[in-house]
Amino acid sequence: MLDTEHCWHAICNRDAAQDGAFVFAVHSTGIYCRPSCPARRPKRDNVSFYADPGSAAKAGFRPCKRCSPQGQSPAEQLDALVIAACQRLADSEQHLTLAQLSAQIGLSASHLARAFKLRTGMTPHAWSAAYRQQQLEQHLPHAHSVLDAALTAGYTSTRDLYQHASALSPAQRRKQAAGEHLRYTIAPCPLGQILLASSAGGVCAVLLADEPATLQAELQQRFAAAVIQRDDLGLGEWLGQLLAQICEPQRAAHLPLDMRGTVFQQQVWRALQQIPTGQTRSYAELAAQLDSHPRAVARACASNPLGLLIPCHRVIASNGSLGGYRWGLERKAALLKREAAP
Predict the structure, then answer these.
(1) How many CB atoms neighbour CB 99 within 10 A?
(2) Domain HTH araC/xylS-type, which positions (predicted)?
């Protein structure tokens, strides 16, 4: 037995989560729709509810051509097409242009580009590059040479591997960063325990936890083959700046950063650095600024290894709630409270 009030509430909110749970029919038009149908909302008195499309059809109603309640919704169809496009990009031995990909998928190039970026946060070209990079990372540790790994990952040569600046060269990554020297220090702070790690390029990690052992384990996992050495004295000045920022947010630490991430992640992280102390932005606002998707921005924030220095705690949900924070919502709330204080 359907709860008609619950169903009507879902229609008013165009709740896609209720698609498949029921359909509603409009007597004045003779059409039945899914709850998320984008068409103009009908009058409540003209609406009846059915458990499934078959029941509505038996009652004499026709399926809506706009929301396709008897099959996949237009959004679900686009989801499937984007998944198919990703598979084509992954399987292709040659670079596919947007025109070539759209012809294979059966969508216009502009339509595919919009749908693809909305669902993945990237253009097809960027997704393809990121996929090849991921394949390269998987093959590098076991390959006989960088060239072998590059060819297996779909590159035609090693030239492309060196066209973009990276914290580690492909040769270093093939050895899992073996030989790289990192220094670190750990200290108590108002947020628990804080770890600061530095490479030759600058600060490469700022991590938070309740116990020093947790921080050491995470650092070791991130840089499994690097030579890691504790250096409380050598990093004392930088750590002091970081602790001062926590206690007095207006005294922001200005330290050299060794940001290690994808092109998109670094783009998001640079945008985070532009958010002034005491202010926040929503995931949706950042996504609009970067021409991306809120979920893609949220994933980049969650991947941030440089807490405080790249202030991902200043990004909140559109409804004003805290959203997420990889080091715990209590810490996020404490940071925002300190920064909002006069």
Answers:
(1) 11
(2) 79-158
Q: What string of DSSP letters covers 79-141?
A: HHHHHHHHHHHHH-SSPPPHHHHHHHHTS-HHHHHHHHHHHHSS-HHHHHHHHHHHHHHHHGG
- In tens, the pLDDT along 175-202 reads 445 567 899 999 999 999 999 999 988 9
SS3 content of the chain, % helix, strand, coil (to 5): 45, 15, 40
CB contact at 8 A, 235 and 198: yes
Q: From CA 269, how far away is CA 15, in angstroms rounded?
A: 32
Q: What is the DSSP string of 280-291?
A: -EEHHHHHHHHT
CATH 3.30.160.70 corresponds to the domain 181-247: yes
Pair 182, 198: CB distance under 8 Å: yes
pTM value is: 0.53
- Under CATH, which number does the domain 263-332 receive? 1.10.10.10
C-alpha distances (whole Å) from 96 to each of 53, 87, 114, 134 are 40, 12, 17, 18
- Cα–Cα nearest to 35, from 60, 77, 64, 1: 64
4-63: CATH topology is: DNA Methylphosphotriester Repair Domain (3.40.10)
Tokens standing for residue 248:
């007095």
Q: How far is CA 250 from the centre of its chain?
A: 29
> 308, 335, 200, 314: which is closest to 256 by C-alpha?
200
Active site positions, annotated: 33, 312
- Both tokens assigned to 6: 């619950």
Distance CA 197, CA 168 (A): 16
Instruction: Summarize the confidence of residues 321-335 as an average pLDDT.
Output: 91
Going by C-alpha positions, the residue among 1, 5, 10 that lies closest to residue 41 is 10
- Residue 228 burial (CB < 10 Å; 0-12/13-18/19+)? middle
